[in-house]
Amino acid sequence: MARSASVSKSPQASATPAAPAGVAERAGTVAQGKPSDTRSAPQKAMDKLGLRRDIDLALHLPLRYEDETRLTRLGDAREGDTVQVEGIVRDSRIEARGRRQLIVKLHDGSGEVLLRFLNFYGAQQKTWSVGVRLRVRGDLKLGFFGREMVHPTVKVVNEGTPLSHSLTPIYPTSAGLPQLYLRKAVEAGLKRAPLEELIPAAVLPPQARHWPSLREALHFLHQPSPEVSLSALEDHSHPAWQRLKFEELLAQQISQMRARAERAHLKAPELLTQPQGLQDQLLAVLPFALTAAQQRVCNEIAKDIARPQPMHRLLQGDVGSGKTVVAAIAAAVAMQAGWQCALMAPTEILAEQHFRKLVGWLEPLGVKVAWLTGSLKAKAKREQLAAVASGEAQLVVGTHAVIQDQVQFAKLGLALIDEQHRFGVAQRLQLRAKLQSAELEPHLLMMSATPIPRTLAMTYLADLEVSTIDELPPGRTPIVTKVFADSRRDNVIERIRDEVAKGSQVYWVCPLIDETEETDLAADQAAGRLSDARPPLDLSNVTQTHEELSATLAGFGVGLLHGKLPPAEKAEVMAKFAANELSVLVATTVIEVGVDVPNASLMVIEHAERFGLSQLHQLRGRVGRGAVASVCVLLYGAPLSDSGKQRLKAMVETTDGFEIARRDLEIRGPGEFMGARQSGAALLRFADLHEDGDLVEQARASALRMLREHPHAADRHVARWLGQKSEYLKA
Ligand code: ADP
Ligand code: MG
């Protein structure tokens, strides 16, 4: 029943911009990838950045500008300045001061500077020979041998070669895509791109009177005249920026509203709640009663899945608020109505835990549960697949293996996605494709403990209903969080001894950045947002800690869990810890989501400064699940950066997931929330949801009006701004 939609196909074939003349030769064609791919390295890099059509290039805006409109005399230049100077080469030679380097001595009549190149081609030394005139731009510093510039940009010129007339734009780029190549491509794209106004004046907000047209705004920002001040260009409150941000938000709102409207035409099974059905039998065997919040969201979901349109709902609730049981009840309603359900979790450990829990609850009630992960042996996999295809298994639990092509559901009625924000965009698209069906589409319930700030919900999730569990089950004692420097490690280990002697269990978490899909912090570091970026720790950190704790806590069971262990071993360690056969679990962030062992009451997080705030909160959520008072100890390596301090402080001051999310947004900015984190490229390039809340509201109103009154222009606007990315917005 699954129709495989071709979501990965990109409409680039005819739209690749021609390489700008004179650049392709210099950039060279480094053969990479498949032999059939004859595009040059820069072309491929542009493709990766989504720069495929002329309009994509026109909308690729500078990060900043350099002033190459004037020359500074070396005699007037000050150290610490970024300057452009011009002079004659006096000396050029290769030296081996520790490392082979090219040193060029430049003189302009008023003074002298050394140009230092650690990476260079032999040809460069030949070109930059004595007597040649060079125009160079870089940071002037005082080095050991006098004033110098390290890796300046260099141009060979003649006397009187004209200076640039406009500020030079510097574009966001990536490896393999030289700035000059990109600049020429953008220039060409800007010339060719159709930039006629698509938004009718009546649809624009009132302040748009002061905005330039799209064409004017783009020309202004790509090719600023020298009179424009740098600060006006770089200030994103400038009317040109306002125009672009608004247009971007408008495209996003329209595409979300379209998706919602499309969904209203789709048909889904009506999963009516039957009195005394499986859901009531499940409630009767649960060892607890639902909280009021759980009951409320169960009702919201029940109402929604009873309708003949597919539900598309996010269930959000803080860690430990009890989302799993809500999902199980929804599944029970669906299965009672004669339909299959699938539950997908982002890690094998979490999927396994759900499997055990659901088997425990549902098999006694006669439900057959299938298990699907990537690590299943071929024979076992065939059996599970057969059970799913025949409909014998009413519930399927697993990792994203659940949505792979070979999986054919007999009658899928409800898909449940746990920790949905942990799935990559590609996987979310794959899921949507899998769920699309010629006849009836299944309902979709996504769960997440990462609360979504309101403006984000409006922009990213206009096509989503949200249910919130805003209450924790009763009897939980709040977690006390303490922060200690690494130097107190021994005291902390003594504390662990006391705890395990009392029969409690302890998590000891070590960061291991290269292991998981990607951590908050790794993403932050990649984006250059954290000042305290340090090299990732390797596996030895966690194995050494395991050895150390095994030795000092002799007599108690100390387990080790990390992503590189074989799945069977992971499952075994986890099961032993859950059964209290291990007192201490030394683990990496593989335990970040979902792991649920109520008897664990102490968590130590080593190098806590290396984790992002939401990740710390997720990790801490592994304790405080039972009736005993729980403690979370954050160990940090000194010195702490400012953002590191803020993060640890936030952890001590609050355990409320919404407050944590708010602070996280403050510390990091919104880019990393939701899809942006996994896609690598933020879906919103210009608008800042934190700062541009007003524009978001206006774009929303304008989108409604444009869809109603100018549907054709609305389509063209979305195509212009989003191109193939509009698929991503649905993920
Ligand atoms: P999360 O929302 O983080 O996924 P879980 O579904 O894992 O939370 O639930 C956390 C723990 O709370 C589990 O041990 C679960 O069995 C328990 N639990 C869920 N609902 C209740 C409730 N109403 N009363 C008591 N315990 C509950
Ligand atoms: Mg959970």
What does this structure look like?
By secondary structure, the chain is of the alpha/beta class. Helices cover 38% and strands 17% of the residues. The chain has 26 helices and 22 strands. Strands 6-7-4-3-2-5-8 form a seven-stranded mixed beta sheet, with no helix packed on it. Strands 12-13-11-14-15-10-16 form a seven-stranded parallel beta sheet, sandwiched between helices. The chain has a six-stranded parallel beta sheet with strand order 17-22-21-18-20-19, sandwiched between helices. It is globular, with a radius of gyration of 29 Å. The two termini are 21 Å apart. Residues 1-34, 513-536 and 670-682 have low confidence and may be disordered. The structure holds adenosine-5'-diphosphate and magnesium ion. Adenosine-5'-diphosphate binds next to helix 11.
Derived structural class:
alpha/beta
Mean pLDDT across every amino acid position: 82
Give a quick account of the main beta sheet: strands, pairing sense, barrel closure: 7 strands, mixed
Side by side, the strands of the main sheet go 6-7-4-3-2-5-8
Silhouette: globular
Strand content is 15-25%
User: Termini, distance in Å?
Assistant: 21 Å
* Total DSSP helices: 26
Number of β-strand runs = 22
The percentage helix is: 25-40%
Summarize the structure.
38% of the residues lie in helices and 17% in strands. With 731 residues, the chain is α/β, with parallel strands linked by helices. The longest helix has 26 residues.
Main features:
seven-stranded mixed sheet, seven-stranded parallel sheet, 731 residues, binds magnesium ion, 17% strand, 26 helices, globular, alpha/beta
